[in-house]
Amino acid sequence: MRVLIVDDDFYSRVMLHDMMRPVAECHIAVNGEEAVGAFKKALEDGRPYDLVCMDLVMPEMDGQQALREMRGYEEDLGLSDMKRCKVVVISMLEDSRETNDAFFLGGADCFLVKPIVEERFMDELRALGLTV
Q1: Distance between CA 36 and CA 125 in Å, rounded?
Q2: Kindly report the CA angle at 96 between 131 and 17, in degrees rounded to 5?
Q3: How many other C-beta atoms can be found within 10 angstroms of the C-beta atom of residue 63?
């Protein structure tokens, strides 16, 4: 499994990386702009990400915009819902508008509020059909 962890907070990135490292090849981006570039390159190289863990509030480009652009690249390639990567939005925000936008405008598959509990996180990944 290939995972892209996108978060501007160092400790959040390290925590997610430590959780995923035993079961996945992990790459890290510190903002949405970097994430979109890595995501697009992975698609072009024929090695797409299986999972993107995306923070919402980041500098340069926020998670909402990054997620919309990523889904746009998948759509341009004609990827079906089954072939698209899974996206878990992870944020400190418990705002219903942000949650709504992540799901309906950005195509997120799951929304978790920080701090992440590893057992719950892994349960969510299994529910999304990912092997962990």
Answers
A1: 22
A2: 35
A3: 29
**What stretch of H or E contains 123?**
helix 118-127
Cβ atoms of 106 and 68 closer than 8 Å: yes
Written as six digits, the tokens of 22 are 């035993």
**Pairing of the two strands 25-29 and 51-54:** unpaired
Per-residue pLDDT tens over the stretch 57-88: 888 898 889 999 999 999 999 998 888 999 99
DSSP SS3 for 107: coil
Phi, psi of 56 (to 5 degrees): -95, -40
Structural domains for the chain: 2-55+70-116 (3.40.50.2300)
Could you tell me which residue, 97 or 104, shows the higher pLDDT?
Answer: 97
**How many C-alpha atoms does 73 have within 13 Å on its Cβ side?**
18
